[in-house]
Each structure stands twice: as structure tokens, then as C-alpha cells.
């Protein structure tokens, strides 16, 4: 019967004639055809890790991890302690960060229920990004979310000269990717 | 209000619509507003044409003055104070403040600019897209009031980071004011600072002059260069190309007011105050905006005002605006919005409509889309899977299916692109440098799962189709989370690749393969031997397993001139440099006879054994005959197929062997090891020649047979081509796949009606 229904449906038949043809008198297929997820998630659920420079040397990290994502993460890699997360701040100045090449890293243990942290003492003219994740059973850090990178301010106003070459090159050939960190809204 | 060409006045009395709603013409709230705007009009009236007063205004206040309540308030004010300087001037403009401003702006006596609508520092939003939307709203309201885009938008607290220049330029702005302490001390008088994107920067300093109960703040241009440039700007009201100013491109990583003095831009406390409002954004989507139809702009206005009220600590106003937004959203979600109330809010409260039209892309419906998961997709090509998924995706799209491919990110490819009817999204892994392959795969899967959840939310996805265990975890999680049918194509198994499971890694991979097979509603394999393998080694006996072969593209006019041209005549082979591909068989061949033909062997592909095999070639002194050329581009690969005498595939294990089929598409005689999927389409002495896997002597004989009998070789090539065209075109393969999709979706949905 299933094959027959599939055949009829593939011919773009509506449900009524299919029910009639196949005498599905009770619980017509149409009623169950559109799948509805039970316990549908809240709209636009955002799993996010944001970084905001509160000042020239303070970084505010705010994250939101929906329980379904945490469950998914634990499914992929079992945690050492499911109630403790690691917030890691990487110095990624002038590199394409690949997880293992940061200049330096700072780790903060946070509770699963926490949602923000402020890190003080950032250096001038450096790029930072954050990741939130956890230690796996083999004591290795496993990231769940990565933030957009930020770049701290110049030390002196004359430091603009450091990026002047790249800035002028971009001004004349703007089809190239900028050689600096941009506002998150400028990225996909 | 002192007027000087280098001053900028910010008229920014906190906008309290609740207080204004209940105020009378002589109330304090109205008095403050009318004084501020009265002073501004007066100063502008007295200005010389071409030397305008520059002022930055709060768009909420200005909008309110333009609305029904604002106009009524202005009328009462004019009636109560007929001799007031503001009343006299407004009389000539029918009580419209906007019209009065317009006239002064037209006469170049006033240069009016908005501050961004929510007045929240644009670098501090913890919501992606919020800064862009803030500027967009600001420009839209400005256009609604004044009919043209603003020349600039004042950045709250002077907060700037690269990229904001692009956002401002998108809204038609020409310059931006930035705090002066970020600029180098510049002695030259004719310097024009520009961002790398071409937005002019004008340095300013805060004069700290707050008067009129904090209604007006005065800023001043800083430095001779800025004053010179501004003088020029004011005369023209737009930068001119024939100026003698030297453009100096400057990049700032971060700027805000008083940064050098150690002040903070914002605080945790302020961000936390805004948090609940940020979360409100999660409660509506394009469907809500559509549901509230012609009054949709009200949602954005309410939200922007909530942020504004939080920034200014207007508790009562914030509570009221949040309640209002929730009420409107609730109605919109139920597709029964209170349109009267929405219009009332816009006309009475905000004085503007901010009519936003959702972009066509956002409202596009994708009925019954297929979500294809693959760890590789062109241009990221590692093995045959990328080409398989690519061929299938484009053929399905061509047949009218809506296809979304979700794959790993690639340095040369965008996060999203629409190619030949297919939507391709790329995400993860976060740690590309991770050496542990399993860990990197888990990382990728979590990224794909997150992106997949977004896609499932945005699109009407009917089913998930994953390829191999590499994206299995993401597929299983998505399927479980959204109760979508899961179809898995198993291209090869760990057991088959290694002729058993011999170490921990192989066991781990096999365990992931088993999990995927177990969770799948339907399985697809590319050859009958693979089907058998799943049944015997992977407990797939209870599953629906369909055999759908790989497809192949048929190309015409392939260029044959490549870096390998000088090596002709040659035998060609291609594949990953791993043991099971059997390239080591070449070393044991009887090459003496073949040398007479001066035949060369070109073996393309990369992989862990590439260097070992190159060394082996050297060791055996075969450098002039066997060439492991490593990676070849798509064009080169096609040209090599086009130019070779024959194609050889000596695999010890081959679930399908799409490259052999590809050789057939080029009408080349195929000599293949009699293994796995190769046997299903290389029919001995009909569409190619088979030899015993690993038997070098047998392979030598078959190659000799092809080289010695060109007519026979040609016949094998043509027969192979005909068969490939008949059975393995992507159109044919995608039609078979679609039938499996329909069947799977149907069975999954009928589960609910089985009793």
C-alpha cells in the first residue's frame, strides 16, 4: 500500500483522491503528513558567543548555549565534568587561528549556568577571540562556540602607520579582503 | 546657543513619550523640548547661507514632533505663546518643525544630522546584525522625514571599529565624526582623513558644555585640518573631487570618546540592562513581520526604543515599550495582529512608520528542500565524495528539487553561495589545525549541527541526506532534533577500506558508521558488494538498502595541453595515495615489454603514501616511467583522461570507483582490478578489461593487450562510454535518488498512522 500511495503522491495527487482510492477511511495520511516537531524550539534560538570591548583593556564575553546544543556537544565528545565549561581567550594577532596556533591563551572555568565573563588586562594593538567549550575525558579542550575576533586599540595615535600600507592598498583595490578585523556585522 | 562654524550641537533631551503624552504646552517636558528646538531654529535663522549651524538630533524626539501628538503639542504651544520666537517661525510652516528645518537646510543655514536611533554604541551590540539594523533604521527614518539620506550619522560615544565605515556608506553617508585623540597630531592644514573604504573622518573634541538641563551638548572640530575641511564641506554640503586636500587613508582598530583618558565605553551593567531586549529579538522572525503587514515597521521601532530606553535608564518607558512590543508580537505570531494599535503607536508615539519590506531572499519558501551533508564539496575536493555530492545536488536542483548543501568551510569559498540552483552553506570545524582526526571530525559535526538547526528553522526541509560517517553525528542529531527522515549514502566502510578492523581508530570509525546506519531510515550504497558489506559487517540487514550507482559528467571540448603533454603516450591512474588503491601493483609489473612502447605511467592524487611511493620509484630506478604527480587540478585531470592511452585502476578495495566511470565518459579503455563496485560496470572484454587485484603480471598483460590493439582499445572505450551514458548520467541517478527520498519521507510520515 505504501508503494501505491507513494506512486499516487508522486503524481501530485491531492490527499482526498488518495484516501478514496486506497480506502484509508480513518486517520487519513494528510493529517500526519506535515511533520511537527514536538516541543518545538523557541523561535530564532541563537547559540552565540559575543565579545565586546568594554574599554581599551577589558573584554566582555557573553554566551548563550541552548541545552539542545550542549546535549549535541556531549553526544559528540563526552565531557569530563558536564557542569563546568571552559572559556578560553586566545591571542590571534596576525594569524589565521586554527585551534592550535594562538600566541597565548587564557582559560577561565565557568559554571554551566553562567552566561558572561569579563577579562581584564588586554594588551594594546592585539587581536583576541574567545571560545567556550569543555574538557573531554582525555583532558583535552573541545570548543562548542567561537566568538568573532576583536582588536584592541593602538598604543599611540601614530601607530596608524603600522597599517597604513594595507589601508592604502585596500583603498585603491577594495575587492581584496581587508587585512584587519572588522565589525561582526560585515561578515556572513 | 553660540554659533560657530566649527561647533556641533547635539540636541538630545531624553525622549520620554509617556511624559510627553500627558504634558501640556506649559509643562516642563514640553518647555525643555521647545526651548532646545527653538534655540536651534533661532541660531540657524541667523546663520549666513553657506555657513550653517551644525546640529545632531535625536530622531525619536524629532519623529514625535512630526507625529499627531507632537503636532498637537506644537499647536497648543503656539496658541499659548504666540510671541515666542519658535511660534513665530513655525507659523510660517503650518506648525511643522520638519518643514522649518527643511527650509533652513535648503538655504544652507542648517546642517542637521541624526544620531543613530537607539543611541547604543555600535561596537557594543551583543547581537549580530544589530549595528547594521540600527544604522539602517536611522537612515530610513531620516529619509522618511527629509526625503534624502543623511550626510552622516553621529556615532554614540564616538564608538567606531573598522567595518562601521562600510555600514555608513551603505546608508548613503559621506563622512563620520570621530574623537580627536585617536588621530595623529597633524600639522598640515589640508589633510582629509579617509577610511580604507573611502568614508571621510572628521575629528572632534567634547567641549563638555552641557546646558539647558543636559539638552544640548557642544562638540567642536579638532585641529586646523578638520576646520579647513569642514569649512569647505559646509560651503558645498558635499565633498568635492576638485579639492586640494591630501587624502590620508587611516585605519583605527577601536575608537571611542575619552579612551585615551582611561574611560570605559560601556559597562557590564549597561549590557545586562539591554540583555532582555536583545533576547526579545529571538521572539520574532520574518513571518511575524509579514503577519503585521503594512504596520510591520512598528516592531523595529518598538525594539529600537526599548534599547534607547535601557541606555538612558528610562525604566517606566522601557517597561511600557516592552509590553507594547510583546503585545504586537503575540498578535503577529497568531496571525491576528492588532493593526489599529500598531498604527496608533506609529502615529502617536513615534511619528514615523519605518515601513520595512522583508527582502525577497528572506521570505523565499523552500518547500520540501533536501539538506545534503557532506564533509567535502567543490572546490574542497579530497576524494570522490565531493564530485558525487556535487553531481547529485546539481542534478536534483535541475529536476526541480530544492537542494541545500551543508559542508565544511574552505579558505577560498564563502560561507554561503548559490551555485547552479544549489544553496551551499559552509561551516566549521573551529580548530582546523587539530591533529586528531576524530576530534576534528567531531568539531566539524557540531558546527554543521548548529548551522543545520538554523537552516531547518529558516527553510522547509523535508529530509536529511548525509554521506558517510564523517557528517553522521550532525545528521543524526538534526534528524532526532527535528524528527526529519534521515537517508545515508555509505560510500565506503572502514572495514572494507582496511580489510578488517585492526586498531582503535578503525574501531572508533566503524562504531560511528554503525551508529549512522542504525539511525538512518534508509541507506544508499553505490554497488551490490557494498550492500553485502553493510549486511554482513554492519548489521544493516534490517534496513532498507538501495543500490544507486555514482553518476558521471560528460564533458566536451576539454583542453588537452597541460604540463603533462610532453609525457605522451601515457597510461593514467588517479586516486588517494592509500594502500587499498593498489598503486603499489605498478612496481611489480613487467615493464620490459612496455618500455618498447615508450609508455609512461602518470598516477595522480595525494595522500599519506605519496612520498613513500615516490621513494620506491627512485629506489627501483623507475623515475623515467612511473610518475606520482601528486594533486592535479580539475582541468588537468580532465586533460589527462582525454590524452591517455588507457586508464588503470588497480584498487584492492573499491566500493564503486567513480574515476573508472569518468574514464569511460572520455571514451578511454579501462583496465580495472576485479574488485567491489568496479566489477559492476567494467564488464570484462565488453566495457573494459579486468585483472586480478594485486596481480602485476595479469595487469601487464592487459595493458599490453590494449596498447598492441588500438582498434580493440577504441572499441572498449566506446562501449564503456555508451554504458556510462545510459546508466550513470546524473539525471538518471538523481531520478533514482528522488524516488528513494519520496519513499523514505512517506514511510517516516506514515509511522504515525501505523497501529
Structure description:
The complex is a heterodimer of chains A (188) and B (755). Chain A is an alpha+beta fold. Chain A has helices at 2-10, 15-22, 29-32, 67-76, 164-172; strands at 48-55, 58-64, 84-91, 104-111, 116-120, 127-135, 141-146, 150-151. Helix content of chain A is 21%, strand content 28%. By secondary structure, chain B is of the alpha/beta class. Chain B has 4 domains: 7-249, TIM Barrel (Alpha-Beta Barrel), CATH 3.20.20; 268-362, no CATH class; 367-547, Rossmann fold; 565-728, Glycogen Phosphorylase B (Rossmann fold, 3-Layer(aba) Sandwich), CATH 3.40.50. In chain B, the strands form 3 sheets. In chain B, strands 1, 2, 3, 4, 5, 6, 7 and 8 form an 8-stranded mixed beta sheet that branches. In chain B, strands 11-12-10-9-13-14-15-16 form an 8-stranded mixed beta sheet, with helices on both faces. In chain B, strands 19-18-17-20-21-22 form a 6-stranded parallel beta sheet, sandwiched between helices. In chain B, a hairpin with a 4-residue loop joins strand 6 (200-211) and strand 7. The longest helix of chain B has 22 residues, at 437-458. At the A-B interface, helix 1, helix 3, strand 1, strand 2 and helix 4 of A face helix 7, helix 8, helix 10, helix 17 and helix 18 of B.
